[in-house]
# Entry
Amino acid sequence: MKKSHWVGLALALSVAVNLLVGGALLGRLLRPPPDPQPPMAWALRDLDPSVRETLRPQLRKRLSEAQPARRELRLALQSLGQALRQEPMDRDAASRALAQLRESGERYQAVLHESLLDILAELPAERREAAMRAAMRGKGGALLPGPGPRR
# Structure
């Protein structure tokens, strides 16, 4: 093959790769953000679809409380990470960040607990027991101390 053919082939290949990468990036940028999940939405996944649809609006009500609590929790985790990465480590900053993490975790966990009560109040006794077991083992244990599930 002549040199001009190789140059043309390389140019065509380069354009194709650029279009592919550009299209992927544009698609990612133009994709709408996913709907935020209400707190404890994962606890509904094993329920009958009709029960799930009945409970979903109640959980959506808690979304306005959960989003700021989640954001606060993420910021506390970031602050902790920054404090721990400093050289030398700033023990006081890390201690403050851990205190903020505990407080944020408690606020977020309170929202999770209220959401769980919303769910449990609507279930018959036999379903309530199964939902409680799921809540105790699911996503970091919504009823256990700590910052709760990651998002």
In short: Residues 144-151 have pLDDT under 50 and may be disordered. The chain has two domains: 1-31, 41-137. The chain is about 70% helix and 0% strand.
